[in-house]
Design goal:
This protein is α+β, with helices and mostly antiparallel strands. It has helices spanning 2-14, 19-29, 35-45, 47-65, 109-175, 181-216, 239-249, 251-271, 346-409, 414-448, 456-471, and strands spanning 32-33, 73-83, 91-105, 223-224, 277-288, 295-307, 311-322, 326-337. The strands form 2 sheets. A 6-stranded antiparallel β-sheet has the order 2-3-5-6-7-8, with no helix packed on it. Strands 1-4 form a two-stranded parallel ribbon.
């Protein structure tokens, strides 16, 4: 009994009891988190994606079993025919047989049909990759928002400390009769607004962090490696180089190429539908009225079927032997005129579908070049905005120093200085927002080039080195 309790407790300790245990185990694996790791973890934690991939795996397994079409079809037949007659002897005929049917030639239609199925699976796999990419991008977007909110919260808290110090000094000035009470009331209003903004941002940040941890499947957030750096800048790739790379690797173009290949195969399949199908048949059987069965027979044959929208013809020839004396032969021909005239437009439909896919591919191919230019231009504008915001912060800091001097000279009141400090806080927040927008523009360019998060700078350096090597 003691051994039984020990085994049960061991199993309970080894198997996680709940989703919280699973998340806690995940947390032990991640002490810090980058953009790429957050994307991978969100993809790994997606239940819908796992289910879709499992479904695709089943479809691929079913496709592999489709190889059965190339192998013989075997069937076993057993029957017993009993006849009781009032006039004449009764009969109890027993028949057992094995039938074999083997495809010899069908103009490659079976192979093309399997190729079409494989292309559909490839398209489904491509769509799942894009689904995974969207899930990862959601995690990266929340990651950026968390970083931005944390940076803004730090700025607001630092500003609150400065405002509280200014309010303390203002209170002493009021007590000494050097400032008006109305200024102190205004300072209290500014402090209340600042605290309210901090509390609101803290609540939003807590909810955002919980959402982020849930997306990642973690119990709590580990340390975030990435930072919002308002001074960060990377060298951009050339527009032509980015467009050329994207035309080889962009997921939209890759899927468009799959679609064109599929349409070409469909057209070839329809065009070869007139090619006759040839099958080999054979059977062997034993029969008799009593066991052991003493009579047997066998036969082999060829069946040829020609099918088109206007005519359908089946020709079958079979020859066999029923020992010891009988030999058999049979020739059959079945002709059906106009079996399906409407299917004659199938080839034209396949041509139109192929032309449409080719036109769409040409449009996407041309659009990729424009998107490359637009993505790089968007990043450039975002960087210019960051630079202007950074200049505004520097100028605002200088203005704050000037206002402090003017306060000491008695040209302005302390409440005016506090308002200037609040304006400077807003400039710093604007700089953080501009740097966050720059991170977003960088990630959009990486997605366009089908790069992992944070790999744009590496891509630019590698392509620059390779281009320099080629030119030399």
């Amino acid at each position: 009994m003691t051994l039984l309790f020990f085994l049960i407790s061991l199993v309970l300790n080894l198997v996680p009891a709940s989703a919280n245990d699973y998340r806690a185990n995940n947390n032990q694996l991640y002490e810090s988190l980058t953009f790429a790791e957050a994307s991978d973890l969100a993809i790994l934690n997606s239940t819908d994606l796992r289910h879709s991939r499992a479904s695709l795996a089943l479809l691929e397994e079913s496709w592999r079993w489709g190889l059965r079409a190339y192998f013989p079809r075997l069937s076993i037949v057993a029957s017993e025919n009993d006849r009781l007659q009032q006039l004449g002897p009764d009969s109890f005929i027993k028949n057992y047989g094995i039938n074999l049917d083997q495809l010899l030639f069908d103009g490659g239609r079976t192979r093309m049909s399997r190729n079409l199925e494989k292309m559909e699976l490839n398209l489904s796999s491509s769509r799942l990759d894009r689904m995974a990419s969207e899930i990862g991008e959601t995690a990266i977007s929340v990651y950026r928002n968390v970083l931005s909110s944390r940076s803004i919260l730090e700025i607001r808290k630092a500003a609150l400390v400065v405002l509280e110090e200014q309010r303390r000094i203002l209170n002493e000035e009021v007590n000494l009769g050097l400032a008006l009470g109305i200024d102190l009331a205004s300072a209290d209003i500014n402090l209340a607004d600042a605290k309210l903004g901090i509390y609101s941002l803290e609540l939003d940040l807590i909810e955002m962090e919980k959402q982020f941890a849930e997306i990642l499947g973690l119990e709590y957030l580990p340390a975030l490696t990435e930072k919002v750096d308002i001074t960060r800048f990377i060298v951009l790739p050339e527009v032509m180089l980015a467009a050329a790379y994207a035309r080889e690797n962009n997921p939209d173009l890759v899927e468009a190429r799959y679609s064109i290949t599929r349409r070409q195969t469909e057209l070839k399949y329809v065009s070869n539908s007139w090619i006759p199908t040839m099958r080999l048949t054979g059977n062997f059987g034993v029969s008799g009225q009593h066991y052991p069965l003493t009579r047997y027979n066998w036969s082999v044959g060829i069946n040829i079927e020609f099918t088109s929208p206007w005519i359908q013809n089946r020709i079958g020839f079979q020859a066999g032997w029923e020992p010891p004396y009988d030999k058999t032969a049979m020739l059959q021909n079945s002709l059906t005129p106009l079996p399906d005239p409407a299917s004659s437009i199938g080839k034209n439909q396949a041509k139109l579908a192929l032309e449409l896919e080719q036109e769409n591919y040409a449009l996407v191919y041309e659009r990729i070049g424009r998107i490359a230019a637009n993505a790089i231009e968007k990043y450039t504008f975002a960087d210019q905005r960051r630079g202007l915001a950074l200049q505004a912060v520097e100028l605002g800091a200088e203005r704050c120093r000037v206002e402090e001097v003017r306060l000491n000279l008695g040209h302005i009141t302390r409440i005016k200085l506090m308002e200037t400090l609040i304006e400077q806080t807003q400039r710093e927040i604007t700089a953080i927002e501009a740097a966050t927008a720059l991170l977003e523009a960088e990630r959009e360019l990486e997605r366009f080039l089908d790069l992992r998060p944070g790999k744009l700078e590496t891509f630019v350096s590698e392509t620059f080195v390779s281009k320099t090597f080629v030119s030399n």
